[in-house]
Amino acid sequence: MSKKKGVSLEEKRDRILGIFHESKSCWLLKDVEKEGAKRGVIFQSVKEVLQGLIDDDMVYVDKIGTSNWYWSFPSAASNKTRVKRAALEEELSSAKKRQKELEKQKSSAASSREDTETRQDNLAALGRFEEEHSALSEELAKYRDNDPEYFEELKNAAIYTLEAGNRWTDNIFQLQKWATQKFDGDSTKVTDGFKSLGCDLEGLDYLE
Known about the structure:
Layout: H1 9-23, E1 27-28, H2 29-38, H3 46-55, E2 60-64, E3 67-71, H4 74-112, H5 117-144, H6 148-182, H7 187-196
Antiparallel strand pairs: 1-3, 2-3
Helix pairs in contact: 1-3, 4-5
Protein name: Meiotic nuclear division protein 1 homolog
GO molecular function: double-stranded DNA binding
Region (Disordered): 95-118
C-alpha cells in the first residue's frame, strides 16, 4: 500500500488563507486552529503557517482587549500582488535600460580590444545586471500566476477552446450523417472511411 501524500506548505497556506477569505470575518487563534484541522492542516502546525502568512503581509493581526484577532480579505491580497508586480515591472524596466547602456559600452570597448580596467569593470557590471534581469523576470512570472486578470484570460481562453472543440465535433457528426445518407444508410462504410483518415467516430463525443 502506498504512503498517503502529506500536505505541502503551500497547500497549508492556501487552506488557512481560505478560512479568512471565505468567511470574510475576524478569527481568534484557537478557532483558526480548529478550522484548519478540519481542512487537513495539522493542529500543531496552524500557528506556524499563520505566522508565515502574517510575515508575508497576507494575514493581519490586531489586539483587541486581551485577545489577538486575525483577518484577511481577498481584495487586500490581490492589491498586495498588484503593488508587488508593479514594483517588479519597474525594477525590470530599469534593469533593461541599464543593460542596453552597458551593452553599448561593451560594444564600444570591444571595438578597441584593449583589456583595460574600465572594460573589465563594464563587463563585470553587465554580468551582474544580466543576472538581476533574469532573477526579476523569474520573480515577475511567479506573481503573474496570482494575477486575477491573467486568470480571467486563461478562463476565457479555456471557454473559447471548449466551444471551438465542440463546434468541430458537431461538424464531424453532421458530415457523418450526410455521408451515411449518401451510402444508403450504411454507417459502417462511413465509420471505416473516417478511421482510415485517423478519426475514430466510436470514441468521439462533445467536451464538457
